[in-house]
Design brief:
single chain; 498 residues; alpha/beta; two-stranded antiparallel sheet; 18 helices; 11 strands
């Protein structure tokens, strides 16, 4: 039997969106499709394992009913064969199937229950049953056992592809749960996580940054399972997606917590913030109502540089991330350009961070990269353990001109990422692209970190040789007199002369 390729699965599963498109908001239907795909995958793998155990042992009871024989035990009512037989009250039945699955697998607690298949968003009972029946039938035609796939790892790639497609479909709302993959690759390449490290994303979204950290370790010959991954996500539905994403990528030990990271950080040890080797995030830009009311009395010591303004939470996330770095830790965070130059409370915070000499690089990105905003963003790289030769300076990189132009969004290309990473690793001046700036110069500029202030990308003005230009002008004037003389001669011959 021909095995499913990644491309074939991408196309087939994405067709499920056509069943929901038009009847439900595109930012919402991702949960139902991703949830059903996850449910079908677990059921198919369980069935595959059970048949193998039964064949090897001859013990049907052991194979199908002993949880100890399976990584994920799927109870009978959550098995796809049971789900596809139901033709009425399908939403209620799916909710109960998800609850039964979670009861048997504590590591999945809350993951599928974050999706309400019985929601009025899918219409009244009749409409809901009709829609869900179509979805169940659609997934029934997609076998997801390991033996059906070109490569068992392909499901993780398909899941990531779907999340990107949903973000593209959702437009502005897509930015709430998805960071473009090439931006993620850039951040992870710069931070270069290694085996044995603790890596955290305090605004985890769908988990792409943590998954890329694991992929980076694997590409460099390490074991991603020896990387400790942590995260926190405020949106419950998005948190569920990130947990499913981890499981499908073979990272079941990733610890993603639910909650508002500013108001209630959950990654704690003995009541204190957990510390990490790498922290990576794309927080919401200039968030209003970010938690100012708790920051002034923060019990975790996160805001010693100052409390950000009430209506712009950018530095709240930056300060939280700095507070969670260990003494050798490094972080990368996506920020709007205003963070680099705005005054007031933000100016004082920026000054404090600069004076501590932990900012290693400021990287400008092209406009129109992110879902939800067309404004160009920047990346701050902060290193608690800057190499001796980099101390007392900050590297400014202007990567804003290198990208692939798209209709709705621009994209970073592999060569654009390589250029930025090479500049960061090289940490030296490259004309019109990057410059190492001493902190003394930055202090003279009142700690303004606007990239254009330090990297001149204006085209060189052509040098003019005045003497040569005068000679050319005189030659042209002589030629003009010669032509005028010829013209006068012609006019006389025609009888128009004086």
């Amino acid at each position: 039997m021909e095995k499913w390729t990644k491309e074939a699965l991408n196309n087939k599963i994405w067709q499920a969106a056509d069943i929901l498109r038009g009847s439900i908001d595109s930012a919402d239907y991702k949960n139902y499709i991703l949830g059903l795909m996850f449910l079908k995958r677990l059921s198919d793998v369980f069935e595959e394992e059970a048949r193998k155990i039964e064949q090897e042992t001859g013990d049907k009871e052991l194979a199908w009913n002993d949880p100890d024989e399976h990584q994920f035990f799927v109870p009978e009512r959550a098995r796809w064969e049971s789900i596809r037989k139901v033709t009425a009250q399908i939403g209620d039945n799916l909710n109960k199937a998800c609850s039964a699955l979670e009861d048997q697998n504590p590591m999945m607690e809350g993951v599928l229950n974050s999706i309400d298949f019985n929601s009025d968003r899918l219409g009244d009972v009749k409409q809901r049953d009709g829609t869900l029946l179509q979805l169940v039938q659609h997934f029934s035609a997609i076998p997801l056992k390991n033996s059906d796939l070109e490569n068992p790892d392909v499901l993780g790639d398909v899941y990531e592809y779907l999340i990107e497609k949903f973000a593209d479909d959702a437009g502005k709302k897509g930015g709430e749960f998805y960071t473009p993959r090439m931006v993620v690759k850039l951040l992870v390449a710069i931070l270069d996580p290694k085996e044995g490290m603790r890596v955290a994303d305090p605004t985890a979204g769908s988990g792409g940054m943590l998954i890329e950290a694991g992929a980076h370790v694997k590409r460099n010959g390490g074991n991603p399972k020896n990387l400790s991954l942590f995260g926190q996500e405020k949106n419950i539905g998005t948190w569920g997606i990130s947990k499913m994403n981890m499981l499908l990528h073979g990272l079941p030990d990733a610890d993603i917590r639910k909650g508002d990271v500013i108001r209630e950080p959950k990654l704690l040890i003995d009541g204190q913030l957990m510390l990490f080797d790498r922290v990576i995030a794309n927080p919401p830009f200039s968030l209003d109502k970010w938690g100012y009311e708790v920051a002034e009395s923060d019990g975790y010591g996160r805001f010693h540089y100052g409390v950000p303004p009430k209506t712009k939470g950018d530095f709240a996330f930056v300060e939280h991330m700095i507070a969670t770095l260990n003494q050798e830790g490094k972080m990368g965070v996506v920020v709007p350009h205003g963070v680099l130059f705005r005054g007031g409370a933000e100016g004082r915070i920026r000054e404090g961070i600069c004076k501590e000499d932990i900012i290693e690089a400021v990287i400008g990105l092209p406009a129109q990269l992110f879902y939800g905003t067309g404004i160009p963003a920047a990346i701050l790289i902060i290193n608690k353990n800057k190499p001796r030769e980099r101390r007392g300076s900050i590297l400014f990189i202007d990567g804003s001109q290198d990208y692939l132009e798209g209709k709705k969004q621009n994209k970073l290309r592999p060569e654009d990422i390589e250029k930025i990473v090479a500049a960061y690793n090289g940490y030296k001046d490259v004309p019109k692209y990057c410059r190492v700036v001493p902190l003394s110069e930055i202090e003279e500029n009142d700690y303004n970190l606007n990239i254009s202030r330090y990297v001149d990308t204006a085209p060189e003005e052509e040098q003019i040789d005045v003497a040569e230009a005068l000679m050319e002008l005189k030659a042209l004037e002589a030629r003009r007199r010669e032509i005028e003389s010829q013209m006068d001669g012609y006019l006389k011959e025609l009888g128009y002369g004086a």
